[in-house]
Amino acid sequence: MNVGIITQARATSTRLPAKVLLTAAGRSYLEYHLERLTRTGLPVIVATTTNVDDDPIVILTEKLGLPVFRGSEEDVLSRFAGAASQYGLDAVVRVTSDCPLIDPEVVAAGVDRWRAEGDEGLYLSNCLERTYPRGMDYEVFSTARLLEADAQATLQADREHVTSYLHQNRAGDVRLLNLPWSGGGAQYRLTLDTEDDRQLLTALYEEYDAADRNCADLVAILDQHPELAALNAHIEQKKLGE
């Protein structure tokens, strides 16, 4: 079974424009993100938009030797469906490019569990219940389920947020499985959505060698340095439909 990672990226983010192209310690956050994903050993596809503003994302991705799919900016569900179909995936790992510190071992373990379950109707994730820091999130599901969602979803939120049709079980027959983590840190933000997030990530990359740290290492650093965690502790995550 051909399982591949699709990560969504665009330059027109509202809270922090072109955030994935910003840099820390001499490299863009998108480069860090993609390098981590390739460590899983799975194919990695960048799903961006047809907007000319996203040309730099395409150029950078192709420079790294990774495939790109360009689709709708607003209808992200159709973008994922198109990417999965074009690259012949049987199952998809969905991640987002604002997670430059995503742990490849965490993602790979999720894929292994999804395969072991042997159920193409299964939606598996580590964020149905928040036990990991934000920035470690992944979702795994069959392409058949993705294409079903693309064909059936009519709510704007489902088109924009890709997987809500699945994890809200709108079809009525999706099996949901959450893989929790006991390592703590669920209160932390290791994602890139605001300027305060960027300040934390920059400090981690430039002062704590974050590029070489796994999830447990990063949680330990934040536990030991509450002044770092305080940089973005006040940020509220956007909710479904916002």
UniProtKB/TrEMBL annotation:
Domain of life, per lineage: Bacteria
CDD domains: GT2_SpsF
Name of the protein this chain belongs to: Glycosyltransferase family protein
